[in-house]
Write a structure and sequence with these properties.
The protein is an alpha/beta fold and 397 residues long. The chain has helices spanning 36-44, 60-67, 87-94, 117-120, 176-179, 188-198, 217-231, 263-272, 284-287, 293-309, 343-351, 366-374, 386-396, and strands spanning 4-10, 30-31, 34-35, 49-56, 71-72, 75-81, 102-107, 110-112, 130-136, 147-152, 155-158, 164-172, 202-206, 211-213, 235-238, 276-282, 316-320, 360-363, 378-381.
Length: 397
């Protein structure tokens, strides 16, 4: 499983947005009480990235304050502020010493609801330096940046007759940071991609899923009105120990973590059905000193890596380390995050756009049921066949 990083370009002035960006940078504009950049990061964080790097420019201190050293689904975020305007490729080159792996590069003001696994592990990208996502240009007539592209045998060519355009997401080989040098501020769209396309070094995939950028007042207003509805999906909330894995008591080592029968098949089915997946787990073993939070993180990074190899992606994991009888002082307290409290579930509902009526929680204890009922979630006890249980539920909804 190759290691990859995620780099997000968030340095633009947002000048077309006028008053919207007078006090804040474009990626921090709120959509349904969530910043656009937060929505974008969460959409990416289900993938097994080693690092997330945000490249900030205009009012970058605000982005830095909001995101630097934050963790999303076990991935640490690092934010860099450029001292002068470097352009999209210049900003990437500016942090090349930090980027150790091949990486996904994404614009910070647009979002595509698609599966990036196919882009990262595209069979033909052994012979390309960059692979990119193409979309049909139906509503972006004024976008002249790499508009008019065609795909022939997985390679991208320029074509004025084509209605395909650049989707603003690229899989880039790390070696390219050393192979292309400029002495001035430069752009990936204008200075890098055209030459690589001519040399047949750019591949791609086409997605028909929705694409949206917030770069103009019209698009931003549309995003504020429609994005939450476009992203809204049903979700499955799963307790971990006893539902996902056999509960051997305070499991915190990968060698002791054993998936229950039919769980992988069930999770894969949910991904194909476009359900969001969340693990909701009490972890009193941290409070009682059986293992550390770092051990929990390490285990879940292993779980994430293992599932990624099988094209299975978990959107997020919420855990509660607190317990009223804790041995470790900082974890000793009563907390509504701990089930039967429902703050872990409420946090997920706040962070994501979820169709609650079509969602379900599966657990193996009465505390799971109580937490679900407090959250107005459908609930079922685990029946030791997650695939059948989920399939039965989704077919009825």
């Amino acid at each position: 499983m190759k290691k990859i990083d995620l780099v997000i370009l968030a340095g633009g002035l947002g000048s077309r947005l006028g008053s919207f960006t007078q006090k804040k940078p474009k990626p921090l504009i709120k959509i349904n009480n969530k910043t656009f950049l937060e929505i974008l990061i969460r959409s990416f964080a289900k993938y097994n990235f080693e690092n997330i790097y945000i490249l900030a420019g205009y009012k970058g201190n605000l982005i830095y304050k909001f995101f630097h050293n934050q963790t999303y689904n076990f991935i640490k975020v690092k934010c860099f502020i450029e001292k002068k305007k470097l352009g999209t490729w210049g900003a990437v080159k500016n942090i090349k010493k930090f980027i150790k792996n091949d990486f996904i590069l994404s614009n910070g003001d647009s979002i595509i609801d698609t599966n990036f696994h196919d882009l990262i592990f595209k069979k033909t990208n052994k012979n390309t330096d960059i692979d990119m996502i193409l979309i049909k240009n139906l509503n972006y007539k004024s976008n002249l940046t790499l508009n008019g592209l065609k795909l022939i045998k997985s390679k991208i060519y320029l074509s004025q007759k084509s209605k395909l355009m650049n989707g603003g997401v690229y899989f880039i080989k790390r070696k390219l940071l050393n192979n292309i040098n400029f002495k001035f501020s430069n752009s990936i769209e204008n200075d890098v991609l055209p030459n690589l396309i001519k040399n047949k070094k750019v591949g791609g995939i086409i997605t028909n899923n929705f694409f949206l950028d917030i770069g103009t007042p019209k698009n931003l207003i549309f995003a504020k009105e429609k994005l939450s509805k476009l992203l809204k999906k049903p979700a499955i909330f799963l307790d971990r120990d006893g539902v996902i894995n056999y509960d051997s008591g305070y499991t915190y080592k990968w060698k002791n973590f054993k998936f229950k029968q039919f769980v992988l098949k069930g999770l894969s089915y949910l991904n194909k059905k476009n359900y969001l997946i969340f693990f909701i787990t009490n972890q009193a073993g941290i409070a009682k000193g059986y293992f550390k939070e770092d051990d929990f993180f390490l285990l879940h990074k292993k779980i994430k890596e293992y599932l990624s190899k099988k094209k299975i992606y978990i959107n997020d994991v919420k855990y509660c380390p607190f317990h009223p009888n804790a041995i470790i002082k900082k974890y000793k307290k009563k907390s509504l995050f701990r089930k039967p409290g429902n703050l872990m579930i409420k946090q997920v509902i706040k962070e994501w756009d979820i169709d609650l009526k079509k969602s379900l929680m599966i657990g193996d204890k009465m505390s799971d049921k109580i937490a679900a009922e407090k959250s107005k979630l459908n609930y079922k006890f685990d029946e030791n066949n997650l695939y059948k249980q989920i399939k039965d539920f989704t077919n009825k909804n």
